[in-house]
TrEMBL record:
<protein>
    <recommendedName>
        <fullName>S-adenosyl-L-methionine-dependent methyltransferase</fullName>
        <ecNumber>2.1.1.-</ecNumber>
    </recommendedName>
</protein>
<dbReference type="InterPro" id="IPR007213">
    <property type="entry name" value="Ppm1/Ppm2/Tcmp"/>
</dbReference>
<dbReference type="GO" id="GO:0032259">
    <property type="term" value="P:methylation"/>
</dbReference>
<dbReference type="InterPro" id="IPR011610">
    <property type="entry name" value="SAM_mthyl_Trfase_ML2640-like"/>
</dbReference>
<comment type="similarity">
    <text>Belongs to the UPF0677 family.</text>
</comment>
<comment type="function">
    <text>Exhibits S-adenosyl-L-methionine-dependent methyltransferase activity.</text>
</comment>
<keyword id="KW-0808">Transferase</keyword>
<dbReference type="GO" id="GO:0008168">
    <property type="term" value="F:methyltransferase activity"/>
</dbReference>
<keyword id="KW-0949">S-adenosyl-L-methionine</keyword>
<dbReference type="Pfam" id="PF04072">
    <property type="entry name" value="LCM"/>
</dbReference>
<keyword id="KW-0489">Methyltransferase</keyword>
<dbReference type="InterPro" id="IPR029063">
    <property type="entry name" value="SAM-dependent_MTases_sf"/>
</dbReference>
Length: 302
């Protein structure tokens, strides 16, 4: 165990602490699904939101957001999650269809339904790593829908602040075969040492040609926008104070760690993808999203 974090509330499931953020992203994906200009469709998302008492009355359709895109939470922030979902869907699908990986590891998977909704090639395995309480809520909802995954899906209960490698390999992950990894909306909740350890574990469990995408926030940005419309609306409208959930300690240089171990990495500002897709959030003053970066890394072939 690396140590307690600000997100330690004793809550293991989706009802509070960091687990409730999985519902926030699910609600954003539900809204995105029903936009006329949707970037990603997730038919499961609204069922997760409706099933949890913490989120049962949150919006799941655009008409339930009277201010539309002007709402800092269910407008702009939800658009951000919609864009992120699409960009990372594309990354994973490229990695399996073109890159040849057949193992997909979703770290901090939350209520990610990619195992059900994406077009996976034959022989894929999708490992969903999250805490036991989140995974059991997810299983209950999916069982209630009689949902059938589009590929082999393997939930792995683990705390990513601890040594989780054995849980993954015991669940059937093969470190000798190529893989693609995702840490979407995860690393800023972990202590820096846990992030460094996680990156080291990914490196240790991957072959050349494997790929990793993850999201970070720049250090100097973490507290700079504490009074931004986005953080304020999230706290006021649904009671989630993201700044108390983030680990505010200085972040490690994970790109440096990866490149030092033979990976190539490119760092992107999400707004690049807003331009590419023609929709999504744009910069604004006092911008809580301004320090977000999406990193795409590939382990070089030897
Ligand atoms: C913002 S949600 C993102 C979920 C998902 N990746 C997505 O984008 O929809 C953060 C997720 O990270 C998980 N998480 C946070 N800290 C964790 C830890 N120490 N071990 C395992 N999972 C963790 C939470 O339970 C939650 O499901």
């Amino acid at each position: 165990m690396i140590g307690p974090t600000p997100c330690d509330t004793g809550t293991e499931g989706v009802e509070g602490g960091v687990g409730v953020t999985a519902l926030l992203v699910a609600a954003a994906r539900a809204i995105e699904t029903h936009r006329p200009d949707s970037l990603a469709a997730d038919a499961y998302a609204e069922h997760f939101v409706r099933a949890a008492p913490a989120s049962a009355d949150w919006p799941v359709r655009p008409p339930q957001v009277p201010d539309g895109d002007a709402d800092p939470l269910w407008g702009r922030f939800a658009r951000y999650f919609g864009l992120r979902t699409r960009v990372l869907d594309d990354f994973l699908l490229r990695s399996v269809h073109t890159g040849g990986a057949r193992q997909v590891v979703l770290l901090g998977a939350g209520l990610d339904s990619r195992a059900f909704r994406l077009d996976w090639p034959a022989g894929c395995m999708v490992f969903e790593v999250d805490r036991a309480g989140v995974l059991s809520f997810k299983r209950r909802v999916l069982d209630g829908l009689s949902a059938v995954p589009a590929t082999t899906r393997v939930p792995v209960a683990a705390d990513l602040r601890e040594d989780w490698a054995a849980a993954l390999t015991d669940a059937g992950f093969d470190p000798a075969a190529p893989s693609v990894w995702l840490a979407e909306g995860l690393l800023f909740y972990l202590p820096p040492a846990a992030e460094t350890s996680l990156i080291g574990t990914v490196d240790r469990l991957t072959t050349a040609g494997s790929a990793l995408a993850y999201e970070v926030k720049l250090d100097e940005d973490l507290l700079a926008h504490r009074d931004s419309p986005l953080y304020t609306a999230t706290a006021e409208q649904i009671g989630i104070d993201l700044l108390t959930l983030f680990d505010l300690a200085p972040r490690p240089d994970s790109v440096g760690h990866l490149t030092g171990r033979g990976w190539s990495a490119s760092v992107h500002v999400p707004y690049e993808f807003t331009q590419r897709h023609g929709r999504g959030p744009l910069p604004e003053p006092n911008d809580a999203l301004g320090g977000n970066r999406w990193v795409f890394a590939r382990k070089r072939r030897s």
